[in-house]
Design brief:
N-utilizing Substance Protein B Homolog, Chain A, 7 helices
């Protein structure tokens, strides 16, 4: 059975993977390139040694592959087109939508909290409020039995 310390280390490694994925997806929106290039570039990032690299690759690869489908779903949970969003909030919402859909072992509250934290740290002044509202709607839709 994992210890509380190992659980915290794993959670911290996943949080760091999300942060790096958000940065990579931000870059991808600004300068389109194959997702594999992002993974290669970010594998050398200073923080990657403490991050969950496998989770980082999963997020970046899946979001890049399913961006149109994720954007279509996001559009139903907000009052504007996803392509009109600030790239930071857009990247955070893409990660959140992906996790809510494809990572059922991650509790929806963790997905929302992580998204809000990233938006507070890197996004526009009140962007975290928007991210919170959209991810809450997404969680109600995608995980009605958990919400």
């Amino acid at each position: 059975m994992p210890s509380a310390t190992s659980d915290r280390v794993a959670a911290s490694a996943r949080s760091l993977a999300r942060k790096l994925a958000m940065q990579a997806l931000y870059q991808w929106q600004i300068n389109d390139c194959p997702w594999q290039e992002l993974v290669t570039q970010y594998s050398a990032a200073q923080d990657m040694e403490r991050a969950d690299g496998e989770y980082f690759r999963a997020i970046v690869g899946a979001v890049c592959a399913a961006r149109d489908a994720l954007d279509a779903e996001l559009a139903g949970w907000m009052d504007r087109e996803p392509l009109r969003l600030d790239p930071i909030e857009h990247a955070v919402l893409l990660i959140g939508a992906y996790e809510l859909k494809e990572q059922p072992e991650v509790p929806f509250r963790v997905v929302i909290n992580e998204g809000v934290s990233l938006a507070k740290r890197f996004g526009a002044t009140d962007g975290h409020k928007f991210v919170n509202a959209v991810l809450d709607r997404a969680a109600r839709s995608l995980r009605p039995n958990e919400h």
